[in-house]
Amino acid sequence: MLDVMIKRSSLKRNSEVVYSQLVKELEESIRRGELAPGEQIPPENLLAEQFGISRSSVRVGLNLLENRGIVVKRAGKGTFVRNHVEEKAPEKNAIRTIGINILMQDDNKENWYDSKIMASVLPVCNERNLRLSVVGGKDFGLLGRDFVDALLLLCYNGSREELLMLQSAGIETILFNRIFAHEKIAYVSVNYRYESEKAVRFVRGLGHERIGVIAVPAEGSASTGLRESGYLDAMELHEFDPELTCCVKPGCSDAYYADRIESFLKEKRRNFTALFIPNGSLAVPTFLACMRLGIRVPDDLELLCFDDIAYLYQTYRIPFHYIKMPLHEMAADAVNYLSAKMTDPAVPVLKRLYQVEILKKEEEGEE
């Protein structure tokens, strides 16, 4: 096995940190099964010689792998691939940690979506004697078992290889509102494309055959892209109709969106009788644009937002349709799964889809 590593490493010399190639080769060998759980890593002096680095650099690389929970050092014996099956299970009353990743906004505040999920996760963690820890950044490969035992990933755009590497390090994972086909990757999610299509068809069922849309480039948000695909499916279109579409840039201010939507409505509103808002962040700019133009909602224009924006009604008093995801149920299912998986790795991988509710906010309440 080491001969294979040597041949590969000899072809990859570059200006990386001196021990990075060693770490990469060992990780890949463990992932492929060339180094099996419980198997001893070659001695430091041999690794140093074959990779052309010092023993101290080898030691730093092995320490990094140990921090990630991939290998374990045994005094007087050497370094071994971690064998999670044979390792002593945590004590029954030991407190284990679930990490949850939250992307802070530019003003260092949580968004409403993350806050709702946190509010649902915390009670379940308390019931199951679990500690909840917020983790930031995107390089989850640097996390080790000394920091978290499992990860609930609210926003994840990484690879399946990274998720599988975390699992091989003994860190269980589950994705929130992201669907992965791989058999070992768990998720709780809404099928954005299907549910968006269903929501737009609902509005068409109210008598609106021509429905406009606010479109954000797909690279702005994967979930927004899926919602827009659902809109196209419901409208039986292969691409956006310029007469029905307000194109906006991602990550801009409310003022920019309000101006863009106002210009769009002023020029194109005669072409449609309803408007699909794929993301909650675009709701307030849409309300402001309608108010500036004196558009009466829903008499002049029906609004449907694919987010739970019910809280906005108290401020703007504009009737609208919106969707409500079962976030509490999804969060509870995710934590319960991680809790069970940490106790028994044989627990089946959870892959669960949820349906949304289509509601209407108006003076009389919710329909």
Supply database-style keywords:
single chain, 367 residues, alpha/beta, Arc Repressor Mutant, subunit A, Rossmann fold, 7-stranded mixed beta sheet, 6-stranded parallel beta sheet, 39% helix, 18% strand, elongated, disordered N terminus
Reported CATH architecture of the largest domain: 3-Layer(aba) Sandwich
> What characteristic shape results from the CA principal axes?
elongated
The CATH superfamily of the largest domain appears as Response regulator
- Count of helix runs: 12
Taking the alpha carbons of the first and last residues, their distance comes to 65 Å
Residue-averaged pLDDT: 84
Category from helices, strands and their pairing: alpha/beta
Characterise this structure.
With 367 residues, the chain is α/β, with parallel strands linked by helices. The chain folds into 3 domains: 80 residues, Arc Repressor Mutant, subunit A (Orthogonal Bundle), CATH 1.10.10; 122 residues, Response regulator (Rossmann fold, 3-Layer(aba) Sandwich), CATH 3.40.50; 141 residues, Rossmann fold (3-Layer(aba) Sandwich). Helix content is 39%, strand content 18%. Strands 9-8-10-11-12-14-15 form a 7-stranded mixed sheet, sandwiched between helices. Strands 4-3-5-6-7-13 form a 6-stranded parallel sheet, with helices on both faces. The longest helix has 17 residues. The N terminus is likely disordered.
Question: How would you sum up this structure in a few lines?
Answer:
With 367 residues, this protein is α/β, with parallel strands linked by helices. Helices cover 39% and strands 18% of the residues.
